[in-house]
């Protein structure tokens, strides 16, 4: 297809929608009919300095989007499309892109740098572009290379490092990249633009520099150049250099000792004197050091002396005063905007991390600042003192904090009457921190007593009427206050007498109309849920029943409110969330009758919600229906004829995959509620579940719950599951294969792998138990495969505890269901002996019990 791509690219940006639509259709047609020619034409357009910038810009965007996508299946399709292009065409595209790096137009070479990196991310793992790094580096060394080419090349090297894994480049390539980048940072030789590009490239290349950081000479040179760059004249370069130092603190903490004095001097100067963007990174450096030391301490929690360099402890006398000074640099309206990140917030966050790192040692360094400023006539000093106090509540011991908090609590409660909103906002936050961290009657310690509870609640319930942002923080304080009273070991809760007042105040806060820009409504309902969840069930039945009717009324009225659909959906979602918590709370023998009495009315409301189109409210309504099914048991069957169509819609909702995932979970709840009465709906449900599993479009996170759901269905319908066996088992075996081929070095992949493994075992457990009494022989042909998969998982030390529990359970179910049929299988393998022993050694009582049962089942099979 021959076409003038320039005119179409320009027309695709026309304000005239008719011209724009026609041009987009022509471009799409070109792309579909000849993808390789299309990409080549785009790369030529991008490289041509004689073309309009508008067409070059769009060519670059389309080219980049033709190589990468956020959606995993779409991305894989684009990768395969690129791989399939003829090598000579790929070569021409690459030549165009390299030519663009020489362009005089920065926007063009900037886009080209990104596209080269996208291609590199596809080809480097396949060893298909061996001369890429060499070609880029030659741009840096040729005497005639203009400054703009060096700048564009450094930017490209940075993007290539960002897009590829450090395992995929040869060490000599890494060395060459680092040499070029560090030389590019040289003040004497290069312009500011080149030095900035080089510093940003170093940031992306640091992950590749493991071997170089192990070599003292190379490491010291990189550190020297980075520290020198951190004192450049240009703000942007200083900021980029500090970003490198932050990354180095995280990646190479263990080799930083010789440089810490220099780094302390640099960061101190930056925090006190530099522009805010630089100072923020200097603080972030110390936050990263804290993160590393906290992680090391937690991983060696059973040892008294964690093996780290104690950088924070050594710097404490100087670091804490520096951070306290930053707390005084607030912005006037930062309490109104949760997205603001400034020096005072960064300093407070770092102070909190320092407290977690050194514990008690921070208290004597911070408390004089608090005491000197908490009553200051200047609001900034009062707020900073409050922020400092709240920031050090996690880390120090209860013994160290207890007298301070007992003494400070009254003061903070009075400060809720401060004239300054900012001070009140921070005070409310500090109170919520106290209740979160120092109010746990179950552990034997709480700052809240029978004596001070009433005045505390008096202040909180008055302050919830304050400005929306203060009220939102007060919701947080009430949330943790209620949470602390959960499981306090007594038959009666001190909170019960105040519950009606608390509930009324939270609903009042949720109903406010002045909090348009705040998250007050969500915070109020979230807190209400926690208050209900933690309430003493026996004492509060009438209160919760009254709340149930009030929330049902609100949900009923919400359909007629004069608000837009999105706000209506958000409100209904929150109300469904409350109903779910109430249903779960009342789902005990003494109060279940209350749910049964209102089930019809509440189900009508939920069904009315499904008639609307809002994924947010569908998720919450589905979860609430799951709770209702679990609570009403067989009685739920009467709702199925009407509800089933919405269940089907949920299972087919690929785009809003969270809705799909929750619907799968609700199918499990309904199976447990109805048992074999679910049978009339099983053909439809299984058909949709199998279709979901076969789909390349459905988000992978939905697939593990589907396998677990197979187990729920099999348990519910028993021998009737036979007709689905020939579909379900191949799916399970295929998923087992996927688990075996996963990249064990990728944490995200392994997290998904653990979910998948657990769900496969849960499916087999349900199927084995479901068929045990009627047709266990149906599973004999598949038992060997299951045992092989079990052995593979057991040998993998990266399995998490939930996988271990599911594995030991299915091992027992296999022996229990197959009996004599499993005898020869168990005699032919021995891995399970060690596995059972491992589980019996666990500190988890439930796991030990299951392991004992499994041991008995296998023993019974073998000796019989």
Commentary on this structure:
There is one protein chain. With 864 residues, the chain is mainly α. The chain has 41 helices and two strands. A two-stranded antiparallel sheet has the order 1-2. α36 packs parallel to α38 and α37 runs antiparallel to α38 (801-818). The longest helix is centred in the last third of the chain and has 26 residues, at 747-772. The termini are far apart. The model has no long low-confidence stretch (mean pLDDT 90).
The number of distinct helices, counting runs of at least 4 residues, comes to 41
**Range of strand content:** under 5%
> What is the overall silhouette?
globular
State Rg. 32 Å
Determine the mean pLDDT: 90
Question: How many E strands?
Answer: 2
| Structural class by helix and strand composition | mainly alpha
* Main beta sheet: 2 strands, antiparallel
Span between N and C termini?
75 Å
- The poorly predicted ranges are none
In what order do the strands lie side by side in the largest sheet? 1-2
Helix content: over 70%
List descriptors.
864 residues; mainly alpha; two-stranded antiparallel ribbon; 41 helices; 2 strands; 72% helix; 0% strand; globular
């Amino acid at each position: 297809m021959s076409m003038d791509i320039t005119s179409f690219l320009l027309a695709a940006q026309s304000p005239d929608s008719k011209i724009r639509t026609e041009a987009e259709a022509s471009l799409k047609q070109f792309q579909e009919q000849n993808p390789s020619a299309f990409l080549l034409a785009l790369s030529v357009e991008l490289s041509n300095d004689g073309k309009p910038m508008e067409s070059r810009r769009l060519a670059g965007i389309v080219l980049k989007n033709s190589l990468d996508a956020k959606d995993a299946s779409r991305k894989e399709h684009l990768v395969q499309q690129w791989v399939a292009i003829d090598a000579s065409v790929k070569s021409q595209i690459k030549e165009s892109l390299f030519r663009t790096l020489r362009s005089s137009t920065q926007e063009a070479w900037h886009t080209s740098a990104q596209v080269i990196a996208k291609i590199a991310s596809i080809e480097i793992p396949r060893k298909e572009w061996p001369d890429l790094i060499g070609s880029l580096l030659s741009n840096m060394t040729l005497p005639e290379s203009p400054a703009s080419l060096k700048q564009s090349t450094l930017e490209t090297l940075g993007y290539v490092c960002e897009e590829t894994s450090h395992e995929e480049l040869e060490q000599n390539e890494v060395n060459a990249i680092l040499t070029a980048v560090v030389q590019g940072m040289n003040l004497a030789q290069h312009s500011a633009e080149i030095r900035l590009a080089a510093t940003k490239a170093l940031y992306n290349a640091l992950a590749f520099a493991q071997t170089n950081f192990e070599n003292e000479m190379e490491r010291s040179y990189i550190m020297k150049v980075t520290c020198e760059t951190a004192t450049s004249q240009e703000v942007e370069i200083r900021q980029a250099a500090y970003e490198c130092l932050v990354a180095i603190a995280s990646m190479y903490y263990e080799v930083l000792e010789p440089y810490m004095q220099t780094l302390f001097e640099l960061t101190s100067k930056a925090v006190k004197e530099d522009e805010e963007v630089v100072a923020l990174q200097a603080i972030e450096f110390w936050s990263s050091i804290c993160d590393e030391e906290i992680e090391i301490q937690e991983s060696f929690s059973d040892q008294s002396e964690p093996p780290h360099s104690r950088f924070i402890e050594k710097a404490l006398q100087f670091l804490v005063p520096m951070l306290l000074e930053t707390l005084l640099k607030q912005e006037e309206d930062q309490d109104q905007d949760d997205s603001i990140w400034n020096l005072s917030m960064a300093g407070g966050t770092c102070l909190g991390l320092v407290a977690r790192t050194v514990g008690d040692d921070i208290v004597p360094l911070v408390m004089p600042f608090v005491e000197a400023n908490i009553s200051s006539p200047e609001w900034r000093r009062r707020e900073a003192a409050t922020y400092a106090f709240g920031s050090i509540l996690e880390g120090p011991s209860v013994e160290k904090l207890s007298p301070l908090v007992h003494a400070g609590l009254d003061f903070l409660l009075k400060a809720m009457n401060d004239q300054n909103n900012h001070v009140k906002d921070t005070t409310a936050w500090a109170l919520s921190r106290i209740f979160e961290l120092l109010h746990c009657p179950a552990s034997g310690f709480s700052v809240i007593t029978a004596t001070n509870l009433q005045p505390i609640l008096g202040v909180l319930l008055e302050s919830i009427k304050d400005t929306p942002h203060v009220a939102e923080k007060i919701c947080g304080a009430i949330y943790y206050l209620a949470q602390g009273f959960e499981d306090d070991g007594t038959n009666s809760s001190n909170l019960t007498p105040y519950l009606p007042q608390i509930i009324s105040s939270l609903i009042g806060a949720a109903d406010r109309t002045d909090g348009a820009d705040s998250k007050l409504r969500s915070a109020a309902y979230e807190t209400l849920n926690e208050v209900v969840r933690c309430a003493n069930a026996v004492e509060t039945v009438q209160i919760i029943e009254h709340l149930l009717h009030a929330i049902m009324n609100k949900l009923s009225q919400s359909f007629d409110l004069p608000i837009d659909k999105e706000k209506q959906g958000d409100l209904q979602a929150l109300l469904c969330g409350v109903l779910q918590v109430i249903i779960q709370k009342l789902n005990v023998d003494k109060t279940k009758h209350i749910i049964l009495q209102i089930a019809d009315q509440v189900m009508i409301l939920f069904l009315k919600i499904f008639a609307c189109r809002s994924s947010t409210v569908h998720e919450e309504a589905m979860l609430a229906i799951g709770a209702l099914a679990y609570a009403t048991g067989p009685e739920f069957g009467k709702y199925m004829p009407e509800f089933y169509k919405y269940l089907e819609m949920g299972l087919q909702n690929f785009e809003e995959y969270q809705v799909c995932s929750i619907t799968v979970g609700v199918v499990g709840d309904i199976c447990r509620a109805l048992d074999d009465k679910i049978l009339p709906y099983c053909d439809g449900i299984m058909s949709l579940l199998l279709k979901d599993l076969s789909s390349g479009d459905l988000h992978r996170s939905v697939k593990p719950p589907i396998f677990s759901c197979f187990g729920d269905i099999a348990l519910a319908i028993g021998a009737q599951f036979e007709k689905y066996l020939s579909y379900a088992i191949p799916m399970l075996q295929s998923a087992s294969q996927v688990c075996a081929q996963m990249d064990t070095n990728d944490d995200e992949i392994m997290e998904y792998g653990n979910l998948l493994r657990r769900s496969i075992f849960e499916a087999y457990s349900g199927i084995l138990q479901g068929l045990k009494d009627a047709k266990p022989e149906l599973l004999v042909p598949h038992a060997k495969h299951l045992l092989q998969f079990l052995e593979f998982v057991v040998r993998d030390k990266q399995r998490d505890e939930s996988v271990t529990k599911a594995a030991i359970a299915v091992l027992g179910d296999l022996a229990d269901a197959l009996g004599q049929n499993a005898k020869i299988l168990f005699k032919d393998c021995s891995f399970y002996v060690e596995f059972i022993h491992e589980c019996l050694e666990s500190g988890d009582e439930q796991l030990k019990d299951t392991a004992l049962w499994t041991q008995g089942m296998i023993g019974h099979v073998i000796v019989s």
